[in-house]
Amino acid sequence: MKIKIILVSLLISMGLYASAISVTTTPGNLATVVAENTEETTLEIKGEINASDFDFIAKKMVSLTSIDLSEATIVAYSGEPILLGQTNYQANAIPAYALAGSKIQSIILPNGLQVIGEGAFSSTQIASISIPQTVTEIGMGAFSNCDELTSVTIPSSETILSSHAFIDCDKLASITLGISKINASTFARCKSLNNVTANSLIEIGENAFLGCVALKEFSFAPSIKLIGNGAFQATGLSSVDFSALESLDSIGAWAFAQCNALTKVVMNNNTSKIGEGAFFDDDSLVSFNMPLSCTAVPSYIFKGNTSIDTTHLLSHNVTSIGKYALIDLNHITSFTLPNSLQYIGDNAFEGWISLISLDAEGIKTAVPQLGENVWEGVDQTNVSILVASDLTEDYKNADQWKEFNISDRTSVEGIEADNTGNRIAATFVGDNLVIKAYDVMTQVSIFDSSARQFAVETTNSNEVVINTADWACPFYIVKVILADATIATLKVARCN
Asked: What stretches of 339-463 show up as alpha helix (H) in DSSP?
């Protein structure tokens, strides 16, 4: 019985030993030194190898799960077509697609390695990878579709990280980058990615983090100059702060579109270029400030962002608003147009169904030109607009403007006057309109310049406070009935 147990143990030990092999070789001779041992799962290589040895590994050692190249040197190859049919392969480089689709779970790369070729480890089961400091280029799709890869460190600032290098790595959660540029779609659809350390970035390429739904925070390096098209589209970001990014000049089209958790964006005033749709369909966005250096509001930049605060939405330097730029902001009741505004594009304000007042008084030179259907869906006849006195008649004769209820400061002051000896006074405290009288008031009514009534309250007091947050008109008419039946009226301008 003991003999049988010893024999079984010996066979198991031999089996385990036979699954690993360590060889010392010269370029192109790996097949010779491995000989019949092609079923091993672990391989350690010492000495010099070339692309033909990778060809042998890919075609003959299909059971390998682990490779140690720490004491190996890759030399150049020139000869018969191998791997992808090429006849020449450079030194210190993992050939393109050398181990793609293999069973490799771990690999230790050569210390002097310079290039990881295109698709070299794509669709493998590698769980972690340490990139040597000597690497200067990681090829396109080099680690794409590595479903078990969880973390990556790329230390060298000189390394070129090519497009799609880590795309669709489902379990990749953490990356540490010393590089200056992330190319197109490098980490796209890495759905578990939640930790990015990248302190030297200058440029983030197109779709770099597209679809990284677990990415809730991103610390933007002060050195960043450009964020490419779709770079963070459909990510889990909850806020972005560019306030310290003095070098950030450009944010690409759709860069932060469809970020459903994004609530706050803090811009730097040096950013002059924002691409179309940059914050399109960010349903939770509340706070945004348009940079002072950005004079053109891009098309489709906001759409349906029904919680957004309009206080700093557009800077006074804005000269044009692109088509569909502010479509379906259906919660806004009052809006002030930028003082420098010259043009509004097609359907820019479509769907503003809650709008009741516009303030265009700061526009002094000319009535802004309009594209088609700018106010589609807006009941313009019930929207009052305050304009500069010198342009009143121009607005009344301009297509798509003349449908509004147009007035200027001169006409407003002529609407009502307090003919009761200043027996009432009114002032704004935040959104609250505070109305006081020297006599007891029995009724207080609030109107706009078109005599549209917003509120009426019965009272028996010398002071009434009315919240106007839902109206936000630029000015109001207050009508008060005093206890002696005297009617007092007063015009009150909102101070922003």
From this structure: 392-396, 409-413
pLDDT in tens, 110-132: 999 999 999 999 999 999 888 99
Sheet of 296-297, strand order = 296-297, 320-321, 343-344, 369-370
pLDDT for 3: 40
Angle at 294 between CA 402 and CA 184, to 5 degrees: 120
Residue 165 per-residue DSSP state? T
The beta strand positions in 333-452, using DSSP E, are 334-336, 343-344, 357-360, 369-370, 384-387, 405-408, 424-429, 432-447
Compute the C-alpha angle 242/339/387, nearest 5°.
Answer: 145
- Which of 224, 268, 271, 274 is CA-nearest to residue 252? 274
Q: What is the pTM of this model?
A: 0.79
Chain segment 355-398, per-residue pLDDT in tens: 888 889 899 999 999 999 999 999 998 888 889 999 999 999 99
DSSP H or E run through 16: helix 2-18
Q: Domain 416-493 belongs to what architecture?
A: Sandwich (2.60)
- Residue 481: pLDDT band with limits 50, 70, 90: confident
CA distance 260 to 252: 18
pLDDT grade for 468, boundaries at 50, 70 and 90? confident
In one-letter notation, the amino acid at residue 448 is D
Contact assessment for residue 374 and residue 385, using Cβ atoms and an 8 Å cutoff = no
Domain boundaries, the chain: 109-409, 416-493
Tokens of 41: 């799962």
Q: How many helices (H) and strands (E) does the chain have?
A: 5, 37
- Tell me the CATH class for 109-409: alpha beta
Same topology, domains 109-409 and 416-493? Answer is no
